Every structure is written in C-alpha cells, then in structure tokens.
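Re: the 267-residue chain
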Amino acid sequence: MSTAVVTVVHGRHDHLARQRASLAASAVPPDHHVVVAVDDPVVARADWCSASVAGHPLGLPIAAARNRGAQEAVDRGADVLVFLDVDCLADPSLVESYADVVRDEPGTVWSGPVTYLDPPSAGGYDVRSLRTLDSPHPARPAPAIGARIRGADPDLFWSLSFACTVDAWQRTGGFCESYVGYGGEDTDFARLVVDAGLDLGWVGAARAFHQWHPVSRPPVEHVEDIVRNAEIYRRRWGTTPMLGWLEAFAERGLVRRDDAGCWRLVV
C-alpha cells in the first residue's frame, strides 16, 4: 500500500524542517509527503511543496487545505492517508504503524498518542531520540505500543495525527470547509466519520511529538474564530463544542450566551 503524509503549513518553517527530518528518519518512510502551503509564499516556492491554498478574509482555511492535500495524495496514487500537523515530529515507527493498522482494519480512522514537548535546547530536538521524551498528553487515550483502542469518543478526536484509507476518507467527504480559522473542524470531522458508518480508534505504535511553541490559555487571540466556528458546529450537529474555552472567555467578559443558547462576542 502506498502511504502519503499530508501536512498543511502557514509559517512554522523550522518546525516543518524538523518534521521532514523526522519522516526521513522513519523505519519505513512515506511514499509521499504532501505539503500544502496555506497563505505562505515562502513554502509555496519550495520545490518540495505539493500545493498552495490562498488565505481567507476570516482566517486560515485549514479545513480546505487538508482537503486539498488529501486530493493531491489521492492523485499521486496513495492508498493510506496520514495527516500530521506541522508542529508534530514523527516517531520512527509512525508511518509504518499507521499503514499496518489501516490495512488490518480499514473501517476505522486511527489516531496515535501525541507528546507535547518542552522547549528545545539550543541544538534543537534530536529526532533520533524522540522515544526518550515519550509522555503522551493525558487528555487523550494513550494505548501502549502494540495496543489498540476501538470505539473511541468522537469528542476526543484531534487532527494533530491520524490516518485512514482513501476509501474511508472519501466516505466522510473530508473536512467541512465552512470552518475557517481556529477550532471546531476536528470534532466536526469525527462526527462525519461516525455518520459514514466508520469507527474511531487509537493505535499505540503511531506516536508523534508536538514541538513546543507559545500558547495562550484560553486562546484569546482566536476568540472570534472560536465563537464563529462553535455556532457553525451547533447548527450542523445541535450541540456546542469547545465549551471549556467559551466559558473561560465568558469569565473574562469576552463572550456571552444569548437567550437562544448561542455564544456571541461582547462588543
């Protein structure tokens, strides 16, 4: 089976370079690394960049960029699609492990545990010793290497690292491109997976390592995106995602909930 890793990127050029190095060090490297530049002319000019997506007035069109990358991978003849966030480094066994589990159980969209790394030393992260840093995020399932979990909670799905067959991808219809900017498209995609009659699972051997970068808790710089995307999700699925963030914004006086249960920006 031919495997493609799909990565969308806007900035984060050093992170992308380290990710490419980690994939090159894989026990079984991917047949294709499909890099999609999102409003990023520097990456778009690189000879290894596969596609480019323009920016959007409301924010980065990440959902559309992932769909564009998946189509590029399909056009190249890939059978297995591995989506890897630009911040993630691949364990040497990640590509092979995803390919194996997708081949064994093609009716499941599989995710692997992700470790959030501390800031790197002056020399950067050593992609050859990532396993010594393994400490998966406690908010998500983290099966041991060699173990699998099936019937996973859609609300715990995230798009940092996951894989599926091309057939499974096409059955979902891909990410909903109504989502622009930060938040919401991950959980929406998980609902599409379930609606398509597919399962969600976690595979312990496909481990990834998220490179450090500054973050805000809650992500106040994305409050407009989160409010807008939460309402898109509510209209599509009848529930509101990202409640923890919305409630934290409300405590800061940034948003409010109206009489109809919709979250609104306080202006």
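The chain has two domains: 3-210, 220-265.
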